[in-house]
C-alpha cells in the first residue's frame, strides 16, 4: 500500500537507484526495474536528480508516472546547463528545452522544480531577477512551482528574499549543512533538504532530532516561523498554510530511506 501524505507534508529521498540500498532498503532479490515502484510505495515523494545532469525522454517521464501510485509526487531538478553559467539571463533556451522536453508527461505527479546553483555563484540582483523572469508559470495549463537552491552566503540578503517572493519562487531550506540557511517564506510551498544523516545512527538521526525536524515541517505547513531555522528577515509569521516537501539527501546516504520513512511515521 502506498504511503499517504500527511497534513500537506511530503517526504522522500533523492533518486531511487543506489546500489547500497539493495538489501538494506530494497528487499534482496527485488528486480532493479521495480525499485521505483517499491520506493514510491514507502515514501510520498522523490527528488529526481538525473535531470540535473542530462535530459530525459518524454517516454521516460511517462514510465515513471506509471510506476508510482496515485497521490505520489516527484520533485525534479532543473538542468545544470541553466544554472551553472556566468550570465543567468542567457539560460532561456536551456530552461525551455527542459520544461518542454517531456516534463509534462508526469502530469499530476509533477511537484516542484528545484533549480540548484553552485556554491561559487554569488548573488547579483539584476542577474538573478533575469533568471527568475525566465521561469515559466505554467506547462500545458498546469501551474508550475519553482524553487531555487542557492549556496553562496551573499544570498542571505533581504533583496534576494524580496525577489523570490516577487516571483513566487521558494528558497530551498538547507536543513543541516554548511550552506547558508534561508528559511524565509516566499512561495505557496516550502522545500526542505536534510543533509545531516550520520553513520552509526540506524535512522540517520537520533529520535529527538527527527522529532524536531517533524515539528519544523509542521510549523512550515501552518505558516509559522519554525524554532531553530534561520531567516534573513525578522518579519512576523504570515500564518499562510503551505504544502511542504522534505527530502533526506546526502549525509550517510545508505540510511536516508530509513530516516524518511520514520519521518512519515512520526507525522502520524
Structure characteristics:
single chain; 268 residues; alpha/beta; TIM Barrel; 9-stranded parallel sheet; 9 helices; globular
The chain-level structural class is alpha/beta
Uncertain runs:
1-6
Name given to the CATH architecture: Alpha-Beta Barrel
Beta-strand percent range: 15-25%
The CATH topology is given as: TIM Barrel
Number of strands: 11
Helix/strand order, N-terminal first = EHEHHEHHEHEEEHEEEHEH
Tell me the quaternary state.
Answer: single chain
Number of helices: 9
Report the principal-axis shape: globular
Radius of gyration: 18 Å
Task: Describe the overall structure.
The chain is α/β, with parallel strands linked by helices and 268 residues long. It is built from nine helices and eleven strands. It has a nine-stranded parallel β-sheet with strand order 8-7-4-3-2-1-11-10-9. The radius of gyration is 18 Å and the shape is globular.
SSE layout:
Blueprint: E1 9-14, H1 35-42, E2 45-48, H2 50-53, H3 58-66, E3 73-77, H4 80-83, H5 92-99, E4 110-116, H6 125-134, E5 138-139, E6 142-143, E7 146-149, H7 158-166, E8 170-171, E9 173-174, E10 189-194, H8 207-221, E11 243-248, H9 256-267
Helix pairs in contact: 6-7, 8-9
Question: How would you briefly describe this protein structure?
Answer:
The chain is 29% helix and 17% strand. The chain contains nine helices and eleven strands. The longest helix is centred in the last third of the chain and has 15 residues, at 207-221.
